[in-house]
Design a protein that fits this description.
The chain has a four-stranded mixed β-sheet, covered by helices on one side. The longest helix is centred in the middle third of the chain and has 30 residues, at 140-169. The chain is an alpha+beta fold. It has eight helices and four strands. The protein has two domains: 3-201, Cation efflux protein transmembrane domain (Alpha-lytic protease prodomain-like, Up-down Bundle); 208-293, Cation efflux protein, cytoplasmic domain (Alpha-Beta Plaits), CATH 3.30.70.1350. Helix 2 runs antiparallel to helix 3 (73-101), helix 2 (32-58) runs parallel beside helix 6 and helix 5 (140-169) packs antiparallel against helix 6. The chain is elongated and about 85 Å long. The two termini are 46 Å apart. It comes from Wenxinia marina DSM 24838. Residues 11-202 form the Cation efflux protein transmembrane domain. InterPro entries: Cation_efflux (IPR002524), Cation_efflux_CTD (IPR027470), Cation_efflux_CTD_sf (IPR036837), Cation_efflux_TM (IPR058533), Cation_efflux_TMD_sf (IPR027469), CDF_Transporter (IPR050291). Its main location: membrane. Keywords: Cell membrane, Membrane, Transmembrane, Transmembrane helix, Transport.
Length: 296
């Protein structure tokens, strides 16, 4: 069982535990905001299951039907998570409007705050683990799941602040107003997750810093060639696809051209983990006098 898969399973376990704690906090208080917070935790469990399924699919090796692998399955999971975040925010807004129109005093607010605070701490720690480990393993599904949990942490923090103010002032409408404010923040977070995931599905190029690393490696390691042009990149899960044309002198043998390509590929794989490289070798009359100039 891979570490990525274990983290995905852990998200489901943590999600179920936190959901139970938040439902207890809602039961103790009757708070609209806490009920909304529990609604989002239901989404957390659903998206954690989706992430687990996507990670299992993405881990499958390339086959005849999917020669480039299954890495993009994680982007589909991340899009689903973003959509579900938005749905959760809309549900919270609905409950908040109802609470504003019909504010009621809360039962056992202090006990509810303590219980909800415990759930918030658990979520914050696990969200940090998912984002840091997900980035290290280049897993869009884990990173999206972690960011989703961070929105839950923000939600819970807002709920706690709202309940504290409502308890101190006796203005119980603050409970619902805080839930509405947090819902707006969650909407923004969900739209961001969807946008970033769709960019992966649309084969967006790698970040500029990674692109500069690729260009630098090619320029440094392509000794014996003349130039590299038509460089293209895209990423899919843990894989980064790199392809370009490499111009070599006309007298270069096939063996020597192959040696140059091997040297470039080895350096790129070391600089960009998970790199999948395709190099098209061309004779010198194909020079475009643009692109990457090979350093002597």
């Amino acid at each position: 069982m891979s570490s990525t898969f274990r983290l995905a399973v852990g998200s489901i376990v943590v999600g179920v535990v936190v959901l139970g704690i938040k439902l207890l906090a809602w039961w103790l208080t009757g708070s609209v905001a806490m009920f909304s917070d529990a609604l989002e935790s239901i989404v957390n469990v659903a998206t954690a299951v989706a992430a687990l399924i996507a990670i299992r699919i993405a881990a499958r090796p390339a086959d005849a039907s999917h020669p480039y692998g299954h890495d993009k399955a994680e982007f589909f999971s991340a899009v689903l998570e973003g959509v579900m975040i938005i749905i959760a925010a809309l549900l919270i807004l609905r409950e908040a409007v109802h609470g504003v129109l019909n504010p009621v005093a809360l039962d056992l607010p202090v006990e509810g705050l303590l219980v909800n605070g415990l759930a918030t701490v658990i979520n914050a720690v696990w969200a940090w683990i998912l984002v840091t480990r997900g980035r290290a393993r280049q897993s869009p599904a884990l990173v999206a799941d972690g960011r989703h949990l961070f929105t839950d942490v923000v939600t819970s923090a807002g709920v706690i602040v709202g309940l504290l103010l409502a308890t101190v002032t006796g203005w119980w409408i603050l409970d619902s107003l805080m839930a509405a404010a947090v819902a707006v923040n969650i909407l923004w977070s969900g739209s961001r997750v969807v946008k970033e995931s769709l960019s992966g599905l649309m084969d967006e190029a790698v970040p500029q810093a990674t692109l500069e690393t690729v260009r630098s490696v090619i320029a440094t390691e392509a000794g014996g060639a003349m130039e590299a042009h038509d460089l293209r990149t895209r990423h899919a899960g843990s894989s980064t696809f790199i392809d370009f044309h490499l111009v070599v002198p006309g007298e270069t043998t096939v063996f020597d051209a192959h040696e140059i390509c091997d040297r470039i590929e080895a350096a790129l794989r070391e600089a960009v983990p998970g790199a999948m490289i395709t190099i098209h070798v061309e004779p010198e009359h194909k020079q475009k006098h643009s692109g990457i100039v090979v350093l002597d």
